[in-house]
Amino acid sequence: MARRILVATGGGDCPGLNAVIRGIVKRAYLEEGWEIFGCIESFNGILKDNIEIIPLTPKVVSGLHVKGGTIIKTTNRGGPFHFPVQQEDGTWTTEDRSELMKRRLENLGIEAVVNIGGDGSQRISVALENMGINVVGVPKTIDNDLATTDFTFGFQTAVQIATEAFDKLVTTAESHNRIFIMEVMGRDAGWITLHSALAGGADVCLIPEIPYDPRKVAEKIATRYRDNEGFCNIVIAEGAIPFNGTVSGSSSTLAGDLHFKLHGAGDRLRSELEEIGVDHDIRVTVLGHLQRGGTPTAFDRILATAFGVKAFELVKDRKYGQMVVYRQPDILHVSLREAISQPNLIDPKTNAFVHAARGVGMSFGD
Ligand code: F6P
Question: What is the distance in A from the centroid of ligand 1 to the CA of 12?
């Protein structure tokens, strides 16, 4: 009988997901005796009353490395341990369907699951592994906040998109002598913020790892305006926090969605600056999901393809409970437990790019 793998993409989508899927399938079909299936909408496809999984063949994945998104869909909602179920009165609750998932995997003759996802998805990988399910993880997130790998795929694409947007905001800021605040993604880690700020030449960069003081930001703005001439460009992470403050956002109201939704960091900064008397025209641009859409950059296609090939090879060698990682110049693997043991945050004291940013006069609001 063929050896079977089930592939799932979980959490927010990310440029390069399709390239990973293609890498797994192409590598598998170099050998005899493999069948690869895609689970639709993360693990929900195998948890629903009517199972939704599709065969992934070389024909299905042909040319996919260029395509953004994920052909097998994804979601932040649900999963084996919090599957949303609607009650007769119309309200929603969640239920643990992990045992059902295990049974169904056995019935379908699936030997291992490849879970392509970020921190939340890899926590699910560990929980599944604890139940005796064979899992291999692939680190995905534009936020680059997973430790043990030099980069997650999707990050470089997000930085490129943010940098191109920033360049556009600079010309309009300059024309109007305005202050522009560009809010980018970055829940716990400021990697997209720092890299796009450095690439674009921002005046101020506000990241979750360095709580900011609006008065320090105002001081930097003042140095940018002479006789009311000048302009100022700020990049702020969605997860940035003022001194003694908290993140800006709200809880989801959807059953099975455990994500706290971040929003409003840029608008809050504008209010803070206005309150302390900054009287230049301030505009806020929120890049949002633009950073996750479209075609992956060359680097992300390469990394994602290499991750897909390695993920298959780990299953082939029965090295389960592992996550593939990039440790330049090699593609290696670490245990899933190690992978989720700590997040990949910027260390403001030692990070070379924080040092470089400060070296060109960028303010971190501290
Ligand atoms: O985890 C990646 C990320 O892009 C975060 O930066 C952001 O907070 C989150 O996803 C938003 O996801 P969604 O809008 O899909 O809930």
Answer: 6
